[in-house]
């Protein structure tokens, strides 16, 4: 059943990302991700480091997916110690990813006057939005479009990364549950680690979705 | 003793259709994790890891190159989407073990995804058509944000390009 749940979830995420694309095609101007996401922790707020932080997040999630598949592999051989070790690394990876996302969200909010900040307020002067766009884009000629595009961009960004982050959070909860069961020897008594395989599927799916979110929001 | 892989109602039903529930994927190699089959599988996992890392680095490199040096957006996006699909393919095939599943099950899971082809084409075309109408159709100027300050009945500037749909 996990595969069919993931299929339905794929359609949910797909619908979100496609509606993001529709809004983007609908707009004359659109924020440039290289100018929106340019910060890195412990660097000055105005440092221009596009793609760097999100690559770090992507690597953390891919590596946690690898440790997950190694846990599943250990489970195939009924190796309890291996399952526990690799699950622990996966949980750490998941929490690290959530920490990165928390930093990115709060930083983006704080740098723009709160989480419901400049990009949500209809009274924001258009000059305050200019730094989200590529330098050549003339926003003064089309202030309403600029505001609407910025609103749409951030609504979709917070909505979709939030929905994905919630999947990561529930994934971490599932991982902790099967980790406790593995430590207690529940699966050893049961004779198989099928539950690890199922939660592993969910965890890989979360990584899979991130591959597409990464492309849609940070690259394209 | 009850065999969990063969003696439950769930397994009897689902085990026929997916290896995930049938226990076929579980190995009973006496050599265990140190055996050849296991080592081969682990080395395959690390190879795929390296591939995913390299593709991600290529994506970031292409993104940075496009940002600083400038690059045709169409070509850039084509490679971004191609590399995304490569990563998705290997995650699903190797990490999610779909490559080891029964053929019928793989088809059953992947077939519905064909809908996405239609969704993407239809919705993106819809978005660009709306933009096209807002830019060119005089009856729609009033609803377009840029003309909110313009009185509804004032004469509209002629669109620079004549709309093809009229």
Detailed description of the structure:
Chain A has 220 residues and is an all-alpha fold. Chain A has one domain: Cytochrome c oxidase, subunit III, four-helix bundle (Four Helix Bundle (Hemerythrin (Met), subunit A)), CATH 1.20.120.80. Chain A has helices at residues 2-26, 33-36, 52-76, 80-110, 143-184, 186-190, 194-219. Chain A is elongated, with a radius of gyration of 20 Å. The two termini of chain A are 33 Å apart. With 166 residues, chain B is mainly α. Chain B is 57% helix and 0% strand. Chain B has helices at 9-14, 36-69, 73-95, 103-110, 114-136. In chain B, helix 2 packs antiparallel against helix 3 (73-95). Chain B is flat and about 75 Å long. The relative contact order of chain B is 0.06. Chains A and B meet through helix 1, helix 3, helix 5 and helix 7 of A and helix 2, helix 3 and helix 5 of B.
What is the secondary structure topology, with strand pairs?
The complex is a heterodimer of chains A (220) and B (166).
Chain A: H1 2-26, H2 33-36, H3 52-76, H4 80-110, H5 143-184, H6 186-190, H7 194-219
Chain B: H1 9-14, H2 36-69, H3 73-95, H4 103-110, H5 114-136
Helix pairs in contact in B: 2-3
Short structural summary:
Chain A is mostly helical and 220 residues long. Chain A has helices spanning 2-26, 33-36, 52-76, 80-110, 143-184, 186-190, 194-219.
